[in-house]
Design a protein that fits this description.
10 strands, two-stranded antiparallel sheet, 4 helices, alpha+beta, four-stranded antiparallel sheet, single chain, globular
């Protein structure tokens, strides 16, 4: 199998990528998104989501690796986005600080999906907003297929009718 720049190789490389991504993420703060006409926060919730599926369940390093490598594209995708590719509304429990204590509260949560191709890399960026809260970066997801014959990353299957 061919190794691409987003493929997990070893723990040493993973640590280097993780450290670099965390340092980069710490410099962002917020980004202006033309679609919303407002700022999108890059807070600790988004970085934590890249590393954990749930509060106590870490993502496999292979999964974290590609997301952490792609994090540098997230602010740029949001800065350039004038259209949204998907919107989902769900009701779910969210942590909320009430009277100096964290509690699980049922809230309406909106997810906004933005897809872009930058440097020949297609990525999906998710923005999350819980009812009454700010919009914030939630995730960056590799958005490509794998050619079954060559094991290389592809942006489409070759069948434009179904891509």
């Amino acid at each position: 199998m061919l190794m691409g720049k987003f493929n997990f190789t070893d723990e040493q490389d993973f640590e280097k990528v993780r450290t670099s991504a965390e340092a980069f993420y710490g410099t962002i703060d917020k980004v202006r998104c033309p679609y919303f006409g407002e700022d999108i926060a890059f807070n600790a919730k988004g970085l934590r989501h890249l590393k954990f599926k749930a509060d106590q369940q870490a993502r496999p390093h292979k999964d974290q690796y590609s997301r952490l490598k792609l994090i540098r594209y997230a602010p740029e995708v949001l800065k350039l986005s004038r259209t949204v590719q998907g919107i989902w509304s769900v009701r779910r429990f969210e942590e909320q600080k009430t009277n100096s204590r964290w509690k699980q509260v049922m809230k309406e949560v909106m997810y906004y999906e933005f897809v872009a191709v930058l440097d020949s890399v297609r990525v999906k960026v998710i923005v999350k907003q819980a009812s009454g809260g700010e919009k914030h970066f939630w995730s960056v997801i590799p958005f490509w297929g794998i050619d079954t014959n060559t094991s290389r990353r592809i942006l489409h299957s070759g069948d434009l009718e179904h891509d």
